[in-house]
Design a protein that fits this description.
Structural class: alpha+beta
Shape: globular
Distance between the termini: 51 Å
Number of strands: 4
Low-confidence stretches: 5-25
Number of domains: 1
Mean pLDDT: 79
Helix content: 40-55%
Largest sheet: 4 strands, antiparallel
Order of helices and strands: HEEEE
């Protein structure tokens, strides 16, 4: 492998590895926020254990107790939680 190619591959791997902890921190933050939004609506959940992002401010949250909710912001800027 040529030296410039080797260094660019190594640089890319280092950037990817250093970005992984920040992605995990964002995921934990999103799970906490979704858990709070669901609880404020008075819906059963316990704790959000899985999140699938569908779009900007639009998530499917999987709860510890088996419930699933779509949490999104509507056109009026309000948080909406719908059971799936």
């Amino acid at each position: 492998m040529r030296a410039p190619v080797k260094w660019s591959v190594l640089g890319s791997l280092l950037m990817l590895v250093s970005a992984a902890p920040s992605l995990a921190a964002d995921d934990a933050s999103v799970r906490r926020d979704l858990t709070s939004a669901i609880a404020l609506q008075g819906l059963p959940c316990g704790q959000v254990i899985g999140v699938v992002r569908q779009g900007e401010n639009d998530y499917i949250a999987s709860c510890q107790d088996g419930n699933r909710y779509r949490v999104f912001i509507n056109a009026q800027g309000r948080v909406v939680v719908q059971r799936q």
